[in-house]
Write a structure and sequence with these properties.
mainly alpha, Four Helix Bundle (Hemerythrin (Met), subunit A), 3 strands
């Protein structure tokens, strides 16, 4: 196997391990403040400790792990302050993505996402909140992909991961209308309006969760799942 093939295989292994540890954290299997032991993870995933170390460094960049000198690597506390900060960054990044989509996104793709916006609302009204959440993430991820800017996508990874722990019950008719407003602006090529509508949509989500926090009713979704699985 030549050097390029070895490098590609190592990269695939790292991504596999990174995604596996990420799922452990976001599912609640690896609890906040838990120590992530490299030897144990290497055995679990069938890779070298060097590959595990690289994967943990990526997750640290995403804010899911932290290294404490002379103690090791631990699962980060995913607190409300970090989540709210991520909304502010997400508004800027996704606003720019919506603006770029006016130049790069095929109109047929935007029309497909209009159907997805309707599906999100339908699923939510039927009580299928997990399905609605998955579709919502798909819509936002597709817009980021259609923006065609690799650096923007990489910067967005951190926020995307953190928002996997959120599941809201904000009025999905309002959410649908916000999505449609963004997509309509993109379809019409109104770049500044598309950016503004997307920023407004993200900030509306932030205010929704801020309200839950103020009332003491907010629990990250994966924490809630973990608690319920123990009851």
């Amino acid at each position: 196997m030549n050097a390029a093939a070895i490098s590609a295989t190592r990269g695939q292994s790292r991504h596999h391990v990174r995604n596996g540890i990420q799922d452990m954290i976001l599912s609640g299997q690896a609890k906040p403040s838990a120590k992530l032991r490299q030897r144990h993870l290497a055995e679990k995933f069938g890779v070298s400790q060097a590959v595990v170390r690289e994967a943990l460094l990526e997750l640290e960049a995403f804010g899911l792990t932290e290294t404490i000198d002379n103690r090791g690597v631990f699962v980060t506390q995913i607190n409300t302050e970090k989540l709210m900060e991520s909304y502010e960054v997400r508004a800027v990044l996704e606003g720019l993505a919506a603006k770029l989509c006016c130049l790069t996104a095929p109109r047929g793709e935007i029309q497909k996402l209009t159907s997805v916006a309707e599906e999100i609302c339908t699923a939510a009204q039927a009580g299928q909140l997990r399905e609605a959440g998955l579709l919502d993430r798909k819509l936002h991820e597709d817009l980021m992909r259609l923006a065609g800017n690799g650096m923007l996508s990489r910067l967005n990874e951190h926020c995307k991961l953190l928002h996997k722990v959120l599941q809201g019950t904000r009025d999905f008719r309002v959410v649908r209308n916000e999505h449609l407003a963004v997509l309509r602006a993109i379809e019409e090529g109104q770049a500044d309006l598309a950016e503004r509508r997307m920023k407004e949509h993200i900030i509306s989500g932030k205010r929704y969760f801020q309200n839950l926090i103020a009332k003491g009713e907010f629990v990250p979704f994966w924490v809630k799942e973990h608690v319920e699985s123990k009851s």
